Amino acid sequence: MRKLLASVVVLASVLAQGIVGALPVAAGIADVQIVGDSITQMAAGHLRHNLEDTGRVRYVTHISGRGGTTLADNLPVVQGALGRGWDWVVELGTNDALGGNPNWQHDLGAVVDALVGERCVVFVTVGTRLPRGAAVARDIDLALYYATLTHRNMHLAAWGDIQYRDRTWLLHDRIHPTRRGA
Hints:
By secondary structure, the chain is α/β, with parallel strands linked by helices. It contains seven helices and five strands; from the N terminus they run H-E-H-E-H-E-H-H-E-H-E-H. Helix 2 links the parallel strand 1 and strand 2. Helix 3 packs parallel to helix 5 (104-115). The longest helix is centred in the first third of the chain and has 19 residues, at 2-20. 42% of the residues are buried. The model is unreliable at 11-26 (pLDDT under 50).
């Protein structure tokens, strides 16, 4: 599972270099900002380790993973790191879905709007198999899909449903990664 998430970050860099091509990666080093909730927080150590040297690019990771946070809670984090020429991975929306956030559309729109000018953004889906909030999760994932259709710098990784392929990747809460899944 962690190799797959590392692949998401590699994808972000490759897409940024090959499709958008605004800023070349110098000397095989690239910066990536990863913004997420407790899922990112729990996987942060593995992300750093796996992205240190992927063979092609050495990633300098900037990870903000905070448990229990929503899209709106993370908007200041996103806004604070804009304009640096970094690639982005955004793993947010789980707590909005679990909590039935009635403002998720507005909050997601604010995050998408903030990232429009960035080189490359990969959104990680929430997934539709959450123990609760699956309908909101589906709607968030659909909105993320539409954002990728209208913004060339935005891409989607269907992580939210991939994580359910192996039961050993998730804790019993079916949300957070195990050590193996991180």
